[in-house]
Each structure stands twice: as C-alpha cells, then as structure tokens.
C-alpha cells in the first residue's frame, strides 16, 4: 500500500485518533497496540517509538482529549458562566471514564484537577457579578459540580442548565438575600 508518509504532528494526531477509536470501541483491557497501529495504517514500531506501552499511550491520549476548564474568560453572565463550567466538567468526566481501569491514579488526579478548576471558575463567575462567594460557602459551590459528576458516573445525561436554574442559582439567591455581606461592598 503506497500512501502518503505522515510525520510529526500529523502522524501523532492520526495515531491518537486511532487510539481513541480503539479505546472507546473496545475499552482499555481489549485495546491493543496492534489494533491501534492497524487502524492508523502504521507499523507497531511507530507507536512504540513514541509510547513504551499501552498505558503510556492512553495517558497521553486522555491528557490530550479530556477537556480542561483552564482559565476561560468570565462573561459576567453568572448563569452562562456556571453552565459552561459544568458542561466542560461533564465532558471531562466522560473522557476520564475510559481511564478508570487503565490508570486509577492518573484518573483520580485528573478528576481532582477538573473539580478544582470548576470551583475556581464558579467563584470567578460569582465575583464578576459582584457576589462574594465566601458567605455562600464551599458546600453550595460544590453542589452543581457534585450533581453533574454523580449523573455522569451513573451514566445519566445531566443537563447543566437545569442544575444551575433549579438548584444552584436558587441557593445562591437564598444565601445572598439573607446575608447583606454576600454582595460586593455589603450592598
């Protein structure tokens, strides 16, 4: 088979795409380096030059494919910002589900990072609209995150907009209306 020889980023993207397809189709335990190579149209040696084994390939794959909240801009629309954070968190947890059996320690670390990022994003969103997150409390800040995570782990189709509208925003309103110090400057 005479094809175009791929190199560099193009080759790595092809290999990672093939690995993702194998992983999602067969799961970690049934995924093989030979299957990835065949799907990518590459020799196994090409894979082994980049990754010493299947677990290293999957770690690279998950770190490349699992969304991170990072530091996206806060728009000043509390609902939209929190929904956005929860949607990214939901996608991250779904991506991490394939890693649970493969590398539990890495999966745990990435889940923790996703949770911390989500809380930080919600705090920034609150502050952008003049709400002091301290009186709201860490438990209330975690409620929408925990609901999304629980739903993903149960295999459900969480709707972050509903969680924000029906649970999070009413709790925030309740806390900020009952405590004047919850708004910036005590207003």
TrEMBL record:
Entry keyword DNA-binding: yes
Key words, A-Z: DNA-binding
Domain HTH tetR-type: 9-69
Domain of life: Bacteria
Protein name per UniProt: TetR/AcrR family transcriptional regulator
Organism of this sequence: Nocardia bovistercoris
Lineage, top ranks: Bacteria, Bacillati, Actinomycetota, Actinomycetes, Mycobacteriales
Location of the DNA-binding region in this protein: 32-51
Gene Ontology MF terms in the entry: DNA-binding transcription factor activity; transcription cis-regulatory region binding
Pfam family, one: TetR_N
Classification via PANTHER family: HTH-TYPE TRANSCRIPTIONAL REGULATOR RUTR (PTHR30055), TETR-FAMILY TRANSCRIPTIONAL REGULATOR (PTHR30055:SF148)
Coiled-coil region(s): none
């Amino acid at each position: 088979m005479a094809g175009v020889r791929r190199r560099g980023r193009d080759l790595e993207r092809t290999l990672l795409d093939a690995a993702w397809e194998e992983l999602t189709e067969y799961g970690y335990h049934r995924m093989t380096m030979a299957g990835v190579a065949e799907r990518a149209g590459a020799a196994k040696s090409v894979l082994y030059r980049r990754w010493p084994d299947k677990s290293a390939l999957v770690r690279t794959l998950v770190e490349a494919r699992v969304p991170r909240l990072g530091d996206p801009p806060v728009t000043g629309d509390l609902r939209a910002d929190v929904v956005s954070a929860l949607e990214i968190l939901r996608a991250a947890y779904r991506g991490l589900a394939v890693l649970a059996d493969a590398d539990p320690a890495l999966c745990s670390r990435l889940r923790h990072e996703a949770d911390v990022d989500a809380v930080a994003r919600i705090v920034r969103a609150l502050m952008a609209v003049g709400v002091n997150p301290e009186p709201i409390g860490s438990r209330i800040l975690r409620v929408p995150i925990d609901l999304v995570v629980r739903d993903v782990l149960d295999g459900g189709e969480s709707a972050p907009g509903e969680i924000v509208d029906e649970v999070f925003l009413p709790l925030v309103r309740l806390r900020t209306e009952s405590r004047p110090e919850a708004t910036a400057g005590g207003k």
